[in-house]
Write a structure and sequence with these properties.
437 residues; Pyrimidine Nucleoside Phosphorylase, Chain A, domain 2; Aldehyde Oxidoreductase, domain 3; four-stranded antiparallel sheet; globular
């Protein structure tokens, strides 16, 4: 007979759990068989002592088994998804999802919401009038069968153990535990019934992983856990030292995604979207190499098929598909405030973390899941790292709904930039690739 106290003591002393012990731990947590303070004590022991790769894989599998697992075996094709660990201006899912689905690959996407300084795919999509992200499994499956893609949020039945553990991690200072992060991410991805997964692990001031060492450790753990649980998994470590793209904020990011699908998006958004989508085509059996996959995706983009697929997604999930022609309606009713540079130079740095925080202050994000988001507000960058700036030249436009505090927000926007007397190189976007073997 296992006692919860014995689990706490074992992990405190550096012991390794077997499947029976991990299963009991999760059952006790989800069924409220022990008080929260004991679960919190075990989470803290895991935070300090860590978990082996085998423990992490078992933890993830048991978290999946705490709920239902979507079954799409009767839908032909290799099911492929992508997941980002979170960043500022990261709207890549809105672009790669339609592109890959247009290539004939089923893409089941269970996405998250904004929290802290990072954005969430569901909030972006819900800036489109009428767009529904709360679908039944039957509705989602029908969309996957007919449209090759759906976007939904985590349901109550998908990895309920994750919901319980995350709530406690959030208030006990254990969010940064890599095994617990891995279990949280991978349990939801595996439960959505996929065969293959591309992970975009962000590193830099605007991400949760601030150093390459931590980002690499997390990427390896995620890939190893996915592979041990039967999902072909690869990861990219990508730069988040400056915002991705030019638009920050929910409606604004949908607008940029639409522009990118029209072939008019910012260079970094366009590049990363094609690189990730190309790899998804390879994993989905539609290309033999990344390069072939990227070329096929570029053809799909140039033919307008990704844009058409995004229109189909919006219409099939109850949204107003006219935003494809008129994306500016997503930001109607707010004031545009131009912020101009007080000095000349070259942009050497953009504070990505503070960018996310400023977007939150404008109303684009939340610090708790209960907070409301204003989908119309945000920041549009006119200059990125390496760009030349003249005195009086516009560097950002703020989309603001508040009648007060605009002057202070404009000052804060200027503080996001550091200028130098000579041009600096824009950071490399894809830093490293991680895969097994």
């Amino acid at each position: 007979m296992i006692s919860f106290l014995s689990l706490i003591e074992k992990k405190r002393d550096g012991g390794e759990f077997n499947r029976e012990e991990i299963s009991y731990f999760l059952k006790a947590a989800t069924k409220n068989l022990v008080p929260d303070y004991q679960i919190s004590a075990l989470l803290m022991a895991i935070y300090f002592r860590g978990m082996s790769s085998e423990e992490t894989a078992i933890l993830t599998d048991e978290m999946v088994n705490s709920g239902i697992r979507f079954d799409f075996k009767d839908i032909s094709g290799i099911k492929v998804d992508k997941h980002s660990t979170g960043g500022v201006g990261d709207k890549i899912s809105l672009i790669v999802g339609p592109l890959v689905a247009a290539a004939g690959i089923p893409v089941p996407m269970v996405s998250g919401r904004a929290l802290g300084h990072t954005g969430g795919t569901l909030d972006k999509l819900e800036s489109i009038p009428g767009f529904r992200t709360e679908l039944t499994f039957k509705e989602a499956k029908n969309l996957l069968r007919t449209n090759n893609i759906f976007f939904i949020g985590q349901t109550d039945e998908l990895s309920p153990a994750d919901r319980k553990l995350y709530a406690l991690r959030d208030v006990t200072g254990t969010v940064e535990s890599l095994p617990l992060i891995t279990g949280s991410i991978m349990s939801k991805k595996i439960a959505e019934g996929i065969d293959a997964l591309i992970l975009d692990v962000k590193v830099g001031s605007g991400s949760f992983m601030k150093t390459m060492e931590r980002a690499r450790e997390l990427a390896n753990m995620l890939v190893d856990t996915g592979e041990k649980n039967g999902v072909r998994t690869e990861a990219l470590i990508t730069d988040m030292s400056q915002p991705l793209g030019k638009n920050i904020g929910n409606g604004l990011e949908v607008w940029e995604a639409i522009d990118t699908l029209k072939g008019n998006g910012p260079a970094d958004t366009h590049y990363l979207s094609l690189e990730i989508a190309g790899r998804m085509l390879r994993l989905g059996g539609k290309a033999s190499t990344n390069e072939e996959g990227r070329k096929k995706v570029e053809h799909i983009l140039n033919q307008g098929l990704g844009l058409k697929k995004f229109r189909d997604i919006i219409a099939s999930q109850g949204g107003d598909a006219s935003v494809i022609e008129n994306p500016e309606v997503l930001c109607r009713g707010v004031e545009q405030l131009e912020v101009k540079s007080s000095g000349p130079g070259f942009v050497s740095e953009i504070d990505c973390f503070r960018t996310g925080k400023l977007a939150n202050r404008l109303g684009a994000g939340r610090s708790s899941l209960e907070e409301k988001i204003d989908p119309r507000v945000g920041i549009v960058f006119h200059k990125k790292v390496g760009d030349k700036v003249s005195i009086g030249e516009s560097v950002v436009t703020l989309y603001v709904s508040s009648k007060t505090g605009k002057e202070e927000m404009a000052k804060d926007a200027l503080r996001l930039f550091k200028l130098s007397s000579s041009r600096v190189q824009s950071p490399k976007l894809i830093i490293e690739e991680i895969k097994n073997g």
